């Protein structure tokens, strides 16, 4: 990474290692997730604040994705399905390794070639620009589960999953977002270039190229290519990312801090390349592993990728947390499930 993150951006400002911000001093309610609960959350919304354009776009996207799933099962070539899986992995790494661990938390540093590749991968994911993604995520950590949190889990499972993208932002989200120091992002050439040319870049990398490659290289039908490698793959990556905000804030153990919503969720960790160990991550957000265990243990594919890049000299200054600090926090605020939650998965 070219510029070093200034003081009080994603490092010290977000969450102190041994202190939970005052807004986390709360009693976490008992969790109930059911179709009835989701319907109840929807009924309690202020419908005047719904962004109907986004609602329509998401409905269309999911209709296309359902059709894409049908084509993947009964019409598309296996090469197209395999290609879509590769695209999923690349786009997911763009979010987990790039937008999240690098640009949001500065948990490690990256050379220009690695930042360029991660910038391309993140653009393929089509989840807003790196600048917007990192800004929203920093606000989320600093004001988690308050009105300033963009996807506040207190507002319901559906809202924290995808509803927040179809609803006008709470004024506090906007105010607190504007108050963050984002100069490190503004000084990053990859972030700045992507933000300036985001629309043509995202259309090209998320849809045009993924659609053309199967058509030109192995004579796939255009419709199969667009619906499977384009819309279906894109929608799957979206939901996997959203599960970190929803499912990993609602379901799981809390061995590091039982007073907060984020939890250890192995299902999300498996699907999101290691991002599901969320209780640890919210307590120690600067750890590049986002978990106490990295690599293949606990499905932490993203940390394995960072380790690999580190061996190649592309990633450096990987930040971790001392074992004694972890133990102190577990003893003081954990829910007693620490031993089982940190057992390596064979």
Topology:
Layout: H1 35-43, H2 52-74, H3 78-104, E1 109-110, H4 112-125, H5 130-142, H6 157-161, H7 171-178, H8 183-186, H9 189-196, H10 198-218, H11 222-245, H12 266-271, H13 278-283, H14 301-311, E2 315-316, H15 323-333, H16 338-341
Antiparallel strand pairs: 1-2
Helix pairs in contact: 2-11, 3-4, 3-5, 3-11, 4-10, 10-11
In short:
With 346 residues, this protein is an all-alpha fold. The protein is built from 16 helices and 2 strands.
Strand content: under 5%
Radius of gyration: 20 Å
- How are the strands of the biggest sheet laid out side by side? 1-2
User: What's the overall geometry?
Assistant: globular
Low-confidence stretches: 1-30
Largest sheet: 2 strands, antiparallel
| Number of H/I helices | 16
Q: Bin the helical content.
A: 55-70%
Mean pLDDT: 88
Helices and strands, in N-to-C order? HHHEHHHHHHHHHHHEHH
Category from helices, strands and their pairing:
mainly alpha
**Distance linking N and C termini:** 34 Å
In total, how many beta strands?
2
Main location: membrane
Transmembrane segments: 55-75, 81-99, 197-219, 231-251
GO cellular component, one term: endoplasmic reticulum membrane
Cofactor: Fe(2+)
Textual characterization of the structure:
One of its GO terms (biological process) is unsaturated fatty acid biosynthetic process. The structure is a single chain. A two-stranded antiparallel ribbon has the order 1-2. The longest helix has 27 residues, at 78-104. Helix 2 crosses helix 11 (222-245), helix 3 crosses helix 4 and helix 3 packs parallel to helix 11. It is built from 16 helices and two strands. Helix content is 56%, strand content 1%. It is mainly α and 346 residues long.
